[in-house]
Amino acid sequence: MKIVIATPLYPPEVGGPAYYAFNLEQALVAQGVKVRVISYRFERKLPPGLRHILFFLRSLTVVPGSDGIIVLDTFSVGLPAGLAALIFRTPIIVRVGGDFLWEQYVARRQEATTLSSFYLAPRFFTIKEKIIFKLTKIFLHWATVIVFSTKWQADIWQQPYNISPAKIKYIENFYGHKKNTSPRPYPQDFILVWAGRDIFLKNLTLLQEAFALAQVEQPALKLQIVTNVRQAELFQVLDKASALILPSLSDISPNIVLEGLMFNLPMIVTKEMGLKDRLQDTVLYIDSLDISDIKEKILLLASRAGYEQGAKAAANFSFTHSYEAIAEEFINLFSKL
């Protein structure tokens, strides 16, 4: 079997798509699949449109002769690589890992709109955003299979993008093995870590305001903000952290939460998330729009009783989902086409 992986990022670039593409490639190769990866290079610096055209031309050189293509986004590489696959009648499996339109809209308007509410009301889109929505809808129509990591996002997308239920499949994100085997002890110095991209939807400003309120009651609390680091550096931070917080407006299948669980970190996460069915009561949930709720959950987790309960819950979470299993699931999807 010959598979092409189209991804916006690939090592040495950092980010979820880069790590996912690399590890999926390795797992597919280990199972005897011939894999070619195509990702943005010099095109990244070009304006949209021209960037897409050049990536489409590059895709035309790798898609012919392949048994299928796995596309790791719906717009930046999805559209040009999908068009190349359509021309050569190559099966397209698109893995939906985020929502580019929602991210663009929230960033532009600086508006606290959750993903679950985004498509339920009329929005004042710019011409660019209207184009993104229309072209994403067209690309999803081209796709042979649409893979979601959570049912939560699939339910949000199905109606606005007019997705046939027959096209929808689920492959969960990577859940790694534990780095630690026992619950973390209550720390002498409480260090709460936030890690991610400093963009509006990650809600960092409200977190800092809520943390300042918590510090009024417990001045010794510390907040560590981590951005733009490689995974190895992030793991060093998580190993030394006391707890993790993710107060995003919404998050679909956040890698940082799954990585935190590998280190048995007690966590506070947004209730607007696609992993609730899997995590259940493993973490503390917050209303990411409510500064008081964020503050109170920080104080709860910083207390001995709250921390020990959270540490035990994190240590008891035992689900794993390897890249080998993920590769097998993609192979099985292609074998049925």
Automatic annotation (TrEMBL):
Cited Gene3D superfamilies: Glycogen Phosphorylase B
Molecular function in Gene Ontology: glycosyltransferase activity
Protein's name according to its UniProt entry: Glycosyl transferase family 1 domain-containing protein
Source species: Candidatus Vogelbacteria bacterium RIFOXYD1_FULL_44_32
